[in-house]
Amino acid sequence: MSDKQKRNRQPGFSTRAIHEGYDPADHLGALTPPIFMTSTFAFETAEAGGEMFKGERGGYIYGRTKNPTQTILEQRIASLEGGEAGMAVGSGMAATSCVLLSLLSAGDEIVIDHTLYGNTFAHLTQTLPRFGIKVKLADFTDIEGVRETVSEETKMVFFETPANPNVRVIDITEVATIVHKVGGLVVVDNTFATPVLQRPISMGADVVVHSATKYIGGHADIIAGLVISTADIITQCRQAGLRWITGATLSPFNCFLILRGLKTLELRMERHSSTALQAATLLEGHHKVKSISYPGLASFPQYDLARKQMSGFGGLVSFELDGGIDAGMKMMNNLELVTRAVSLGDSETLIQHPASMTHAVYGPEERAKHGISDGLLRLSIGLETAEDILEDIEAALNAL
Ligand SMILES: *Cc1c(COP(=O)(O)O)cnc(C)c1O
């Protein structure tokens, strides 16, 4: 972006999603950023290489930690989330792992919300304790409970909002206020909302992680993760988490695909949100539906908080049918357009059954405790013509 465009005010979200961190004049006029398919970078002189390793000279050394296509993506996502710096990695799980393993040590305590993406929950509750990190659980929708669980020992808290799979919403500002009083770090997984609908750093979060596999990539063709934070924290996560702990580098080609996805992110989120509200309204009014969870419905328990914290409600809808799991399985098999698949945030509308799929790593008792009932179904509303999505859902319900 030229200085002229930057002069008066910060450009809007989509302008930054399309231009931030890239000037065609630096790359032979190429409108689209080049894909730097190189593993290593030549040093101008023998001395220059040593200076770069010592951090006395800028530039690129080796592709595990830094590549120019990746740098453009990192600057762009940092701007969109309102953080100082960003880091692109090989998956959402890699993003979370880089943060946890770079910033926590044996003896530290982390407090986590009950409801998390299944593999994140497994990593936090099964891996971290093996390395001497104490993990405490709380229901983060209950702020008093968070206040009671967080202590002087708490080094970090971790949660998702809206949470996977039941889209519960957590008050980022309230949690951050409690955690900052004891000097802890607040890490938010912002995969479901994306920076279009919610910017946790502006509400006090210290670190944001993403599965860019989902809405940010947006086209179901890559696995990728992103971390956004202060320059200092990102340096720690890159030097330890990416460089020597996980080595989970994102390929330059996949960086390019995410840069392409970002250009339409705002447009896509508007469409996902508007069709999801229609689908949620249809489900809420259908006699075969026992319960429904969508932050944009007035019946949603945290509707006021969702309206305060988010500028739209996203594309994820969770619901349960009368007849529980059996009816749920039948309904999934009745669908013709809506596709049975895990993942979310794609152009295609997807449906899955958390208890047997994304959240199967939770034990049945844990699932019950965390509000992930056996009959719960999760819809990720896509970008197809709304009428077609609604017709398919309604037909599948009517055929039960
Ligand atoms: C999918 C998902 C992840 C994991 O991301 P991957 O890219 O699959 O590694 C983490 N958090 C949430 C909320 C997710 O939906």
Structure report:
The protein is an alpha/beta fold. It has two domains: 11-263, Type I PLP-dependent aspartate aminotransferase-like (Major domain) (Aspartate Aminotransferase, domain 2), CATH 3.40.640; 267-398, Aspartate Aminotransferase, domain 1 (Alpha-Beta Complex). It is 41% helix and 14% strand. The chain has helices spanning 3-6, 13-19, 46-54, 68-81, 92-103, 118-130, 143-149, 172-181, 194-197, 231-246, 252-262, 265-285, 303-309, 324-334, 364-369, 386-398; strands spanning 85-89, 109-113, 134-138, 154-160, 185-189, 207-211, 225-229, 289-293, 316-321, 339-340, 350-352, 376-380. Helix 4 runs parallel beside helix 11 and helix 12 (265-285) packs parallel to helix 16. It is globular, with a radius of gyration of 22 Å. The mean pLDDT is 96. The structure holds pyridoxal-5'-phosphate. Pyridoxal-5'-phosphate (PLP) binds next to helix 5.
Percent of residues in helices: 40-55%
Radius of gyration: 22 Å
The domain tally reads 2
Q: Enter the CATH topology name of the largest domain.
A: Aspartate Aminotransferase, domain 2
Reported for the largest beta sheet, the result is: 7 strands, mixed
CATH homologous superfamily of the largest domain - what is it? Type I PLP-dependent aspartate aminotransferase-like (Major domain)
Quick structural gist:
The protein is α/β, with parallel strands linked by helices.
